[in-house]
Amino acid sequence: MTTGERISKKRHELGITLRALSRIVGAAPATVSLWEHDTNQPNGDNLLKLAKALNTTPEWLRHGHGVRESKHLYNIEPAAKQPSTRKLPVISHVHAGNWAEAIDYYAAGDDVEWEDAPYSASSNAFWLRVVGDSMTSPIGLSITEGMLILVDPDIAPENGKLVVAKLDGTDEVTFKKLVIDAGIKSLRPLNPSYSPIIINGNCQIVGVVTELKLKL
Fold first, then answer.
1. Residue 27 belongs to domain with CATH number
2. 4, 45, 64, 175: which has the fewest C-beta neighbours closer than 10 Å?
3. What is residue 186's predicted lDDT score, i.e. its pLDDT?
4. Burial (Cβ within 10 Å: 0-12, 13-18, ≥19) of residue 158
């Protein structure tokens, strides 16, 4: 039995999906699939995380030697410990507008840019790169072009939340602050040089922004 076959065997025995295992280990699903098919070999920290997640030892995964079940070694069940982060894709403004019908980014693997996000983010969340200066403010919170924003479609949009929305008749999304005043909804930029956009059923809220990231 090869390393990949042992990984696959233990994963199926424990009832863990490939996508769930990839999140626990912190690797893309495509990477885990390559391990299971013996195209690549897990090493270092990835091998240790795999062993813990699959309730076994690194030695057994790599060589088939040693203790197959490591319950006594780690004294934990593999599902008891959640990772602190998960990998989520960085997508384009066009794909964000059609997120429900978007391609399977997990299957795309290494062809997609991935960024760490809090594990508390939903599996439907994604990163989006800010375009333009409409959310750049001279005072208070200022979100500049090039920053990454974490968008979670599973969070309900509320007054005062930063949201990503798609207006009817457009292919791309816009990033603004949702303001509800006297029953009137608008998308307001943080930059006072831009005007707010009144929305009245002509807009789909794609998701709520929960985190910002600046990469130097």
1. 1.10.260.40
2. 45
3. 96
4. exposed
